[in-house]
Amino acid sequence: MSVFFNLISVDDAIGLMKKIAPPMESEVVPLMDACDRVLSGDVVSDIDIPGFDRSWKDGYAVVASDSVSATDAQPTMLTIKGRIQMGSGERLSMKSGEAIYIPTGGQMPLGADAVIMIEHSEEVRDRVLIKRPASVGENVILKNEDFSRGKVVFRGGRRLSPQDIGVLAAVGATSVCVRGKPRVGIISTGIEIVSVDTVPAIGQVRNVNTYLCGAYVQKHGGIAVDYGIVRDDVEAMKNLLCEAASECDLVLISGGSSKDKNDVTAVAMEDVGEIFAHGIALAPGKPTVIGRIGTTPVIGIPGHPAAVVMVLNVVIRHLFAVMVGHSSALAQSRKAVLFENIPSEKGREEYVRIHLNKDGMAVPLFGKSGLLNTIAESDGVIKIPAGCEGLEEGEIVEVMLW
Amino acid sequence: MSVFFNLISVDDAIGLMKKIAPPMESEVVPLMDACDRVLSGDVVSDIDIPGFDRSWKDGYAVVASDSVSATDAQPTMLTIKGRIQMGSGERLSMKSGEAIYIPTGGQMPLGADAVIMIEHSEEVRDRVLIKRPASVGENVILKNEDFSRGKVVFRGGRRLSPQDIGVLAAVGATSVCVRGKPRVGIISTGIEIVSVDTVPAIGQVRNVNTYLCGAYVQKHGGIAVDYGIVRDDVEAMKNLLCEAASECDLVLISGGSSKDKNDVTAVAMEDVGEIFAHGIALAPGKPTVIGRIGTTPVIGIPGHPAAVVMVLNVVIRHLFAVMVGHSSALAQSRKAVLFENIPSEKGREEYVRIHLNKDGMAVPLFGKSGLLNTIAESDGVIKIPAGCEGLEEGEIVEVMLW
Lengths: 402, 402
Fold this sequence. Notes:
The structure is a homodimer. Chain A has four domains: 10-24 and 181-327, MoaB/Mog-like domain (Molybdenum Cofactor Biosythetic Enzyme, Chain A), CATH 3.40.980.10; 26-46 and 148-179, Alpha-Beta Complex (Molybdopterin biosynthesis moea protein, domain 2); 54-141, Molybdopterin biosynthesis moea protein, domain 3 (Molybdopterin biosynthesis moeA protein, domain 3, Beta Complex), CATH 2.170.190.11; 333-401, Beta Barrel (Beta-clip), CATH 2.40.340.10. By secondary structure, chain A is an alpha+beta fold. In chain A, the strands form eight sheets. A six-stranded mixed sheet of chain A has the order 7-4-6-5-9-8, with no helix packed on it. In chain A, strands 16-13-17-20-19-18 form a six-stranded mixed sheet, sandwiched between helices. A five-stranded antiparallel sheet of chain A has the order 21-27-25-23-24, with helices on one face. The radius of gyration of chain A is 31 Å and the shape is elongated. Helix content of chain A is 20%, strand content 29%. The interface between A and B is large, with 98 and 97 residues.
């Protein structure tokens, strides 16, 4: 293993992510637990919805042609033939000159073809004054108009919103098949790393990355499994890597991936698995190692939290998207107006961290990227393409949100 | 109780929500479970970060003034005085003419004031060639520069991102005080409602709303508690309402809130609690009842799922925001270009549901709002202010996302 490495482009790193990502198996979950999960197959309706012609307003079922000349000044008078009871299977019938009171959701009587809203009517003993004309079908939802029995309601790959959960309840899906949640093993390495409940001595830092990676994994629908801290010891790293790779769907290692001779990540990965790339043209985040043990992807990320945030969001999100079966869930972006010029001297692709200010403008964060407080302040990142000589204040930019 | 009701404006309904919302008590959660939770108080750092002057790059600690004339063609040669070991508390020292190898995160030697990146150096036996000048402080993070011991890191009211969780790990917050998750009781009412595992007979519909409300509550950080279906029975509703109000922080009832004589929600609410408003100038969603039992807000929403989606997102989200202590978490919006004209004849405030198409344009959904499939298709809603005569194709609109 060379101490120095060859850089691959961010696009190539993303391509590699998509190639090595193992899609999650399906699992069945109760409908009430399925919000934000991704359907693993199509769902069909078990019934017609509605199962009968129903009113969409409280009012009077009428024959539309009876109402053509109805106005406030000259209402049409109809005889009230009856009242629809909610939930009753009985179907009333009526004819021209008659009206039947119908609540929202009630079954349309035979003979009626429209509903006049109660606001446009006035009941007078056993008659009703109709004050607006109705067109055929007005305020009525026809049997079958919404969903048909046996027809697909949602396609596999859809991420379920609360509204979708409501629709699935309507079609009788008490449980649904969704992609499993990826188990993501998290290892932190570095001889200087101490646990969060320890006060670090001079030269030491707390284990920020296990928490940062764990929260990211949870936020994006995975299960974080903490494998603790490995000192700079290749054998310990190899053992832990094998354990984590066999128990998880993905392993993230933070630290130990750079060119320093004591960095053990790449050495251990090469020994117990395979390495596909070492180095991405991304700053911060350059000395990233991408590999696999068996079928489990293993990503070694440089140890600085700023690099971890960048690599997780710019690269690893694509791996996650394939695993959970949904692309847009993990790539939310927002157009914003650039607050100030971004010079780009180098002519090569760059990623610049952005803070969205209270006016929604994109403020580039130029300060020291090594500071934690710029990490907490940043809301996302913009890409400056290769060959671009920078961006100007006032330009519309696409901010990939963290 | 009048069968008819007076409408209040959406703004008044939102004001009422903010007034009756009980802020949640604090609870302590482990840091790893705190992502997306809202801090209930300020967090201060227990240490200086960094606790020592550290390098932010792999490279050589130097005296900046030694490097002023260094170039690729005419590098400056310095004597390697030693190598910094990660995690070592020992502080090396050096002087002009010397350099010390330092890895990212290593403690700066006494006497050095900058770090030359390894890419801009070349080691030759016990010497190193420096090929770029460094300014004082370059690639160095000073003790204290990030956070100071005893100083506030995050203010109460902040919703924690994965990056924030990382920062909290750095400042030793192994657990954090956050706002509790609201327990939200959900009651579905209507004589026509049957459970989701039942095939509805003619005139019946499945209990969509318990799932829709439950998923909404979960998505927005609450705990959904299902109190089942109440038939149109005032006594049963009163008993269940009292039970739910005593066990929960908020109760949502769907159905039974309209003007139909069999609708029991308002009658039961008035008997066991108080009603502040009955009717909102919002379509669909007009016959909403807003009240309270003891200190627990109770909202009766009309039974059609389209109304439930509208009332939850336009009105109840504000109540939720006060309860969980964070406003922007629940009011995400996005600017979009309007795909086609929206006529507004009425001159009064209107809410129009929007689908964001694949180009990100806002397509108004004009179809029957009673259809479930338009609910699943909609991504949010836009507000057309009172007095506005409609919106034109190509205008920029603000879409409140579901």
